[in-house]
Amino acid sequence: MTGFPHICHGLPRPAAGSRRTVRKAARALILAASMAGAALVGSGSVPAAYASAEPPAAQQPATVNPSPAGGSHESGGHGLPESAVEIGRPFGVPVTNSMVVTWIVAVVLIVFARAATRKMTEVPGPAQNLMEWLIESLYGFLESIIGPHLVKRTFWFFATVFIFILAANWISLFPGVGTIGWGHRTDHGFSIDQPLFRGANADLNLTLAMSLVFFALWIVWAVKEVGVKGIVHELFAPKGDTTGALRIIMVVVFFAAGCLEIVSILFRPVSLSFRLYGNIFAGENMLEAMSTMVPGLGWLLPIPFYFMELLVGLVQAVVFMLLTAVFTLLICQHEEAAPGTAHG
User: Fold this and answer.
1) Cβ burial, residue 94 (10 Å; 0-12/13-18/19+)
2) Range 158-192 burial, b when 16+ CB lie within 10 A, else e
3) Structural domain of residue 254, as residue ranges?
4) Low-confidence stretches of the chain (pLDDT beneath 70)
5) How far apart are CA 28 and CA 7, in angstroms?
6) Dihedral sign of CA atoms 84, 57, 37, 113 in order
C-alpha cells in the first residue's frame, strides 16, 4: 500500500516480465477501483422523480424475472427507467442499484489485481500473464498516440478508466442485472419495478463523475506541461507568420476561435458522459425489447444482441480513453520552433 502516493507520477515503460511495472499498475488499478466505489456514493443521488416512490420494503420481495433481459419495469410501460433507483439509505446515505454494480466491479478488479501481483514469478501464471499483457498493450498503444513523455504522466488514469469502463460494461451483461428486484405480479408474469442491479455506466451520475475527474486532471496536466501562459497562447494566439493588417485580422479571428474553443472545452465533460451513458443505456433497452418482443422466445432473441453488446462495451471503453487522451495531447503539446529561427 505504500506505493499509492507514487502512482500519480506516472509509470515507467513496461518490459516483458517486469515485476515492478505490473505491480505498480495493479496498485493503480486497486486505488482507482477503491476510489470509484467510495467517491461515487455522493454522486449517486436519486432524482426527485423517485423521491416519492414506494420503498422496496413495501413491495413484494426480490424476485427473479422469468425474462432474461428484465421485462417491463413499469406496470403497462416499456423500457428501463432513465435514472438509477434508490434501493436503500443506510446511515442516511442514498444507495442506488447502479452503485451496487459499481462496487461489485471495484471488488472484482481489486481481487484480480491482488491475485495477479501477490506472487510475481519469472514464468507468469494465467492471472499475472493477463495483467502483464493488458498493461504492456495499453502502454504501447497510448505511447504511440500521445508520446513517451506524456504517457509517463497520464498512463495511470487512461489505463484505469479503460479497464474500469470495460469491466463495468461486461459485468452489466451478466444474468441478474435488471432481472432481480422488487415488483408485482401481473397477468403476464412478474414485473420488476425496482431492479436490484443496474448497469454501472447506464447511470449518468457515474459517467459524469468520470468526465469531471478527467476535466480536473486535464487542467492540472496542462498547467504542468505548458503553464497558464502556454494555455492562453494555445487558445488565443494567432498561428503562422503574418504582418501588417493581415496580422490584426488574424488576431481577431484567433481570439474568436479561442472563445469558441473555451465553450467546446467546457462542454467536453457533458459530451463524454452522455456518449457513454447513452450507448450503454440504449443497449440495455434493446436487450429488454428483444426479450419481450415475441412471447415464449424471450430467452432466445436477445442472445445475438448480447454478443453485439460485448463489442459495444469494448468500443465505448476505447472511445472514452482515446478521446480523453487526445484532448490531453492537444493542450499539452509543445509548439516547435520554426526551421528558420530554431538556431537563430
Assistant:
1) middle
2) bbbbbbbbbbbbebbbeeebbbbbbbeeeeeebbb
3) 4-332
4) 1-79, 188-189, 334-344
5) 6
6) negative
Provide the domain count of the chain: 1
CB 150 within 8 A of CB 329: yes
Q: Please give the share of the chain, as a percent, with pLDDT higher than 70.
A: 73
Taking only Cα atoms into account, the Rg of the chain, rounded to an integer number of angstroms, comes to 24
Report the alpha-carbon distance of residue 165 to residue 167 in Å, rounded: 6
**Within a domain: residue 337?**
no
DSSP-based helix, strand, coil % in the chain, nearest 5? 65, 5, 30
The model's pLDDT over 323-341, given as tens digits with 9 standing for 90+, comes to 999 999 999 986 654 444 4
Q: Distance between CA 278 and CA 265 in Å, rounded?
A: 20
Q: Is 0.90 topped by the overall pTM?
A: no
Task: Pull the grid cell for residue 176.
Answer: 441478474
Q: How many Cα atoms occupy the beta-carbon half-sphere of 219 within 13 Å?
A: 10
In a domain, 343, yes or no: no
What burial letters (b/e) apply to 274-292, b meaning 16+ CB within 10 Å?
ebbbebbbebbbbbbebbb
Would residue 342 count as lying in a domain? no
Residue type, 57: A
182 is a domain residue: yes
- Which residues lie closer than 8 Å to 319 by C-beta, 6 or more apart? 275, 276
